[in-house]
Amino acid sequence: MTTGIIILVVVAVLALWAVGIYNNLVKLRNNRENAFANIDVQLKQRHDLIPQLVATVKGYATHEKEVLMRVTEARTAAMGAHTVNDKIAAENTLSTALSGLRVSLEAYPELKANQNFLQLQGEISDVENKLAATRRFFNSTTRELNNAVQTFPSNILAGMFGFRREPMFEIPQADRATLDKAPEISF
Fold first, then answer.
1. Cβ pair 46, 128 in contact under 8 A
2. With left for phi above 0 and alpha for psi between -120 and 50, is residue 163 left, alpha or beta?
3. Is the separation of the CB atoms in 43 and 87 below 8 Å?
4. Ranges under pLDDT 70 in the chain
5. Is-contact 183 106, C-beta < 8 A?
6. Contacts of 72 (CB under 8 A, 6+ apart)
């Protein structure tokens, strides 16, 4: 009789322990999704500003058509991405295209003095800084989820319930130096 009770208590404790681990994994996954929703808000602002920036630049940089096309195409691809992983890849491409645009614009002193351009550049700089902060938060929540998914004993339940390691929102190594700093506004 006591052996049966002990077995039931052990089974109950193990079941509660498993439920706790599962609930923690769900919480971590939801935190990651919420963090990406915050990134989506900033990306929407970024996507809304890009056509204005491109239109302003077009008047000055008529022979920079290829750079402007890359920015426009990258924006379209970023807006069409549906999964978190697709959005991460598309946004990295857009960031690269925007950094190429910033480099090209250095040759246009009259554009850099244009008030509309300066205002747009300031707004984009603000959005980029907010994006950097939300990316850090997203990567922090992703790291927490990945730790739970990969460490014992939660990795056992994670595998059973389909939780898996998720990618960070990382900028390609080649673009890090350019994108880690806010765009410069010079007069």
1. yes
2. beta
3. yes
4. 59-64, 103-113, 172-187
5. no
6. 50, 51, 54
Six-digit token string for 138? 């997203």
d(CA 94, CA 72): 9
| Residue 158: both structure tokens together | 């994670």
Q: What are phi and psi of 9, to 5 degrees?
A: -65, -45
CB–CB of 26/20 below 8 Å? no
Looking at residue 185, its pLDDT comes to: 46
| Residue 163 φ/ψ, nearest 5 degrees | -75, 140
Given this model, what pLDDT does residue 186 score? 45
Which residue in the block uniquely carries the two structure tokens 């890359």? 70
- Cβ atoms 129, 99 nearer than 8 A: no
In the chain, helix, strand, coil percent, each to 5?
80, 0, 20
Of 148, 145, 166, residue with least CA distance to 157: 148
pLDDT of residue 62: 62
Amino acid 49 reads: L
